[in-house]
């Protein structure tokens, strides 16, 4: 899903690139950059840093549960460089065979999902799913501790 700010950013970047091409002087290495292009570049650089810090928090908290690493979505800047505007860290969310291990894993998943200072709605949904996983594991532990009482409904 492309957010409106991403569409706006993309349009502004394309305009800035077009403007840079139009302003290009006779010297091969010299390009005059408009104030708009400089502003867009500053926004892209700030977003890139924000996205990388956000995903690094997931990576650090996820530890051994992280599968593969970070996957970024990039936007080309007016300078031709690529800047991260979105990202994703895949986490192993499969339950363990033992409910105690599943409970511990669910707590780690929840911590990894909520690790960034500004969790996204997707992060909050992952944390909620981890909480549900933990609740199921806790119920299974309670059932195992009381063999005569079946808590499954």
Distance between the termini: 38 Å
Order of helices and strands: HHEEHH
**Strand order across the largest sheet:** 1-2
Helix content: 55-70%
Task: Look at the helices and sheets and give the structural class.
Answer: alpha+beta
Our count of helices gives 4
The fraction of residues in strands falls at 5-15%
Radius of gyration, Cα only, in angstroms?
23 Å
Q: Uncertain segments of ≥5 residues (pLDDT<50)? A: none
Overall mean pLDDT score? 85
Number of strands: 2
- In terms of quaternary structure, the protein is single chain
Largest sheet: 2 strands, antiparallel
Shape category = rod-shaped
Structural key phrases:
14% strand, 2 strands, single chain, two-stranded antiparallel ribbon, 153 residues, 4 helices, rod-shaped, alpha+beta
Word description of this protein:
The protein is an alpha+beta fold and 153 residues long. It is 58% helix and 14% strand. The protein has four helices and two strands. Strands 1-2 form a two-stranded antiparallel ribbon. Strand 1 and strand 2 (82-91) form a beta hairpin. Helix 1 packs across helix 2 and helix 2 runs antiparallel to helix 3. It is rod-shaped, with a radius of gyration of 23 Å. The two termini are 38 Å apart. The mean pLDDT is 85.
């Amino acid at each position: 899903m492309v957010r409106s700010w991403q569409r706006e950013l993309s349009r502004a970047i394309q305009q800035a690139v077009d403007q840079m091409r139009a302003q290009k002087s006779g010297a091969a290495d010299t390009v005059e950059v408009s104030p708009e292009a400089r502003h867009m570049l500053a926004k892209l650089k700030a977003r890139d840093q924000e996205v990388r810090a956000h995903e690094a928090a997931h990576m650090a908290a996820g530890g051994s549960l992280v599968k593969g690493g970070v996957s970024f979505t990039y936007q080309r800047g007016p300078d031709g460089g690529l800047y991260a505007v979105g990202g994703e860290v895949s986490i192993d969310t499969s339950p363990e065979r033992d409910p105690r291990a599943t409970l511990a894993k669910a707590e780690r998943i929840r911590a990894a999902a909520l690790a960034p200072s500004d969790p996204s709605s997707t992060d909050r949904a992952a944390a909620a799913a981890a909480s549900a996983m933990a609740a199921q594991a806790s119920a299974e532990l309670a059932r195992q501790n009381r063999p005569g009482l079946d808590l499954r409904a």
